[in-house]
Amino acid sequence: EKGGYTSFMLKEIAEQPRAVADTLLGRIDGSGALSLDEVRIPPKALREADKVVIVACGTAFHAGLIAKYAIEHWTRIPCEVELASEFRYRDPILDPQTLVIAISQSGETMDTLMALRHAREQGARVLAICNTNGSTVPRESDAVLYTHAGPEVAVASTKAFLTQLVACYLVALYLAQVRGTKYADEIRAVVRDLSSIARSVERVLETMEPVRELARALAHKKTVLFLGRHVGYPVALEGALKLKELAYMHAEGFAAGELKHGPIALIEDDLPVVVVVPSPRGRSVLHDKILSNIQEIRARGARTIVIAEEGDDEVVPYADHLIHVPATPTLLQPLVTTVPLQVFACELATARGNEVDQPRNLAKSVTVE
Ligand code: F6R
């Protein structure tokens, strides 16, 4: 049942190109426009929405953080992302013009369920993004967009995360289409980029041997830090979460710009720091900023593990280890930059003798608050 892999996690990492492609299937019409009729929220309600609130936990929360960048950029609707476990305890402002998006792989996470129940009681509309047909979260929501990752068995979420991102991009583009905040040809261009991502993920997977080698070499370390900016920041958080849960290691993700406000004090000789570098094309300011962040930590002795786009020559002098990913538009980059971090955590945990499918103290779905 593991299809020749030694763990479900490795199998599920390998299934990601297929999972991404399947989640797009049937959701784009012949003209390249979004056709999300399955989202049964009337277009009028989507046009009238004045705020999007995303609630989720763990890895699904990281998908939500990334979705915020896409939703606000493409639709200009303000979007908040909140941990489901915090949401209802702070008396959030919700009304019928609020579109709540609840993201959950299992559809049974109690914190997420309680958050969406609270939102519906306040009159908000809830759209679920979920991987499990007929589970509680979609049943209790107004509408659902299923991710087609297929069953995820390993406790650590991998392919579900990538498909949650795809579903979020689809919802964001659909909102832009319905509200007319983007021209049809702009939407088509993004859809084309999305459609070619499965191939890029496949290419990343073909080049992971150096990442596995590096993970084994770092298996004795106590701490690994992760840095990113813009959508690379949630990717850094996700990389750190994977390492915590699988390798039982101290790992933290930071927004690279926050370094100087405290975390840079952690940098010491030979401390591994993974840096997720944004594309040098497009938002090049971000690229310049992160280059100087890498220089700062390297000057203080950090061992830099740099994830950067192919052809990004500027990072080369600052990378002790360089991991290339295919060129991808900035907003979609998490679909490719997350993959090496999953492989890194899985291999490092295995080198430490941990059981990757069943990390200690964790359950696949958390049905208690
Ligand atoms: C991390 C992980 C968890 C889940 C979280 C939410 O690898 O798997 O952080 O993402 O418990 O679970 P779902 O998506 O089922 O609501």
Automatic annotation (TrEMBL):
It is found in: Cytoplasm. Its EC number is 2.6.1.16. One of its GO terms (molecular function) is glutamine-fructose-6-phosphate transaminase (isomerizing) activity. It comes from the Bacteria. The active site is at K364 (for fru-6p isomerization activity). The keyword Kinase does not apply. Keywords: Aminotransferase, Cytoplasm, Glutamine amidotransferase, Repeat, Transferase. Residues 42-181, 214-359 form the SIS domain. It catalyses: D-fructose 6-phosphate + L-glutamine = D-glucosamine 6-phosphate + L-glutamate. Its main location: cytoplasm. Homodimer. Catalyzes the first step in hexosamine metabolism, converting fructose-6P into glucosamine-6P using glutamine as a nitrogen source. This is Glutamine--fructose-6-phosphate aminotransferase [isomerizing].
